[in-house]
Write a structure and sequence with these properties.
Helices cover 34% and strands 22% of the residues. The chain is α+β, with helices and mostly antiparallel strands.
Length: 481
């Protein structure tokens, strides 16, 4: 059922265990259609792009990051029970000096199995194109029933962008079905989700524009649909309390104390949690070039936001796939793409509409509702901050475009990766290294023989790598096969 043999691999980027290669594969029957990564064909829906709003245009929106857990009162699948025995034996006998990973095929995709887990999960599998999967120990399966976190799945943004929202939901459901005997009783919940819009602008925002912002990022980790309304009597009570605080000799009589009801204190607490904050928490860049502005605490907070120059990041990282998405949606390459991104963890999502967006289906269906809250109540960029009444501050044209981005869906694309930018980058690096090596090896400027010998050696090595299936293992390591 399971075959093992030593295979060639390459260094991966996993943060806990580095510099490992791969061992060959444990196979499973493919139950998920495999997404090819070879073609650069684009398929777009036939719909006009979103209209311009104040000179700005939204050309892409959706989910950028998605971490999920799945579990419930359901048995593990027979495949998972059988595979776990092989995985445990691999972990027990792992030779840390060999630096080799086990390759596991799940639904047509190859994952690397790491030699140790990370509590509370026993097994960790990684695919560079798809993301990370963490699996609960089947011997302690009942321990995760109440928390519904048997299988953790963290998807990469590039993989998410290959699907429409409904297609992504179908893929996730099919993928999770491999790990459970049946899907009845299994709940798929969002652990973290990032929503974004890409806005085409003539230039990047300046520091003054992001500083002229109003947000709830100071203390708010909770969701409130509306603000706090005090009655006239309660407003008089606030004034009285203020005077008492300023005059220590004045005491509250019993009549005043009787008016301090639990509802009054609840409104005070709510007022604190919905207080407004002016300006960004942190800005990266300088007065001449703004790169990224942050609102909220992304390390310990439950919700945060950032605005940054996505087109600059795409050029620096040679990300041609996202550029292809923009072009298909009407991007003028002479203009800048500014990304607005809101991130939230489950603790915050539970507060939204009574927790109706915690489930995968609820999260996908409620993206427009969540975006409306984030862009109208949690954060706004305004023309002028009116201190006497912040709510009446007028949004900038840029923020009006951001707010309206999820009212109707931008042109959706289902596309297959071309890796054009990555290939060009690697080719330049490889030829640069070979050129340097030849320069060192030549006896003089006319030593053409050495250069030809290098070309023959490279040709021989590449052909042998293909015949020995080293390239195949490399493709599996990169998540391409």
């Amino acid at each position: 059922m399971v075959s093992h043999k030593k295979g060639a691999g390459a260094t991966n980027t996993y943060s806990l265990i580095q510099h490992h290669r791969t061992i060959t594969p444990v196979s499973v029957p493919s139950t998920i259609p495999q997404v090819s990564n070879q073609s650069s064909n684009l398929q777009t829906t036939t719909r006009d792009p979103l209209p311009l709003v104040g000179g700005f245009q939204s050309i892409l929106n959706g989910i950028d990051s998605l971490a999920l857990t799945a579990g419930g009162p359901q048995f593990p699948s027979n495949w998972l029970l059988e595979s776990q025995e092989v995985w445990k034996e691999y972990q027990r006998q792992y030779d840390w000096s060999s630096h080799q990973y086990l390759e596991v095929e799940i639904g047509g995709y190859w994952f690397q199995l790491y030699p140790d887990g990370k509590l509370p999960y026993k097994f960790i599998l990684y695919n560079q194109q798809i993301g990370m999967v963490k699996v609960w120990n089947c011997d302690c399966w009942s321990g995760a029933v109440s928390s519904k976190q048997h299988i953790f799945l963290d998807l990469r943004a590039e993989f998410i962008h290959t699907f429409t929202p409904s297609g992504l939901e179908n893929w996730i459901n099919n993928f999770y079905s491999i790990f459970f005997k049946e899907m009845s009783g299994v709940e798929i919940q969002v652990s973290r989700g990032d929503l974004f819009v890409d806005i085409m602008c003539d230039k990047m925002l300046v520091t003054e524009e992001v500083e002229s912002s109003i947000s709830r990022c100071k203390t708010t980790n909770r969701f409130y649909e509306n603000g706090v309304d005090f009655t006239e009597e309660e407003e008089d009570m606030l004034d009285l309390l203020g005077r008492v605080c300023n005059k220590t000799k004045q005491k509250l009589n019993e009549e005043v104390l009787g008016k301090l009801t639990p509802d009054f204190f609840r409104k005070i607490i709510t007022l604190k949690e919905t207080q407004q904050c002016i300006g960004a928490n942190r800005i990266v860049g300088n007065t001449n070039r703004l790169e990224t502005a942050y609102w909220g605490n992304h390390k310990g907070g439950l919700v945060w936001a950032k605005i940054y120059d996505k087109s600059l990041e795409a050029r620096v990282k040679h990300n041609t796939d996202i550029q292809d998405l923009w072009v298909a949606n009407g991007w003028d390459k002479n203009k800048v793409i500014v990304r607005v991104e809101f991130s939230m963890r489950r603790g915050f999502i539970k507060e939204l509409n009574g927790g109706s967006y915690v489930s995968l289906s609820g999260f996908i269906e409620g993206m427009n509702v969540m975006w409306d809250y984030f862009s109208t109540k949690w954060l706004r960029l305004v023309e002028e901050k009116k201190k006497n009444n912040i709510q009446l501050s007028v949004n900038t044209p840029f923020w009006d475009c951001v707010t309206k981005s999820f009212l109707e869906t931008a042109v959706k694309i289902v596309r297959e990766k071309s890796f054009r930018g990555k290939i060009n980058q690697l080719f330049k690096q490889a030829t640069g290294c070979l050129t340097s090596m030849i320069s060192y090896g030549m006896n003089n400027e006319e030593d053409i023989l050495y250069m030809k010998c290098v070309i023959q050696a490279v040709d021989k090595y590449i052909n042998e790598a293909y015949e020995d299936k080293i390239i195949l293992h490399r493709r599996r390591l990169l998540g391409l096969s």
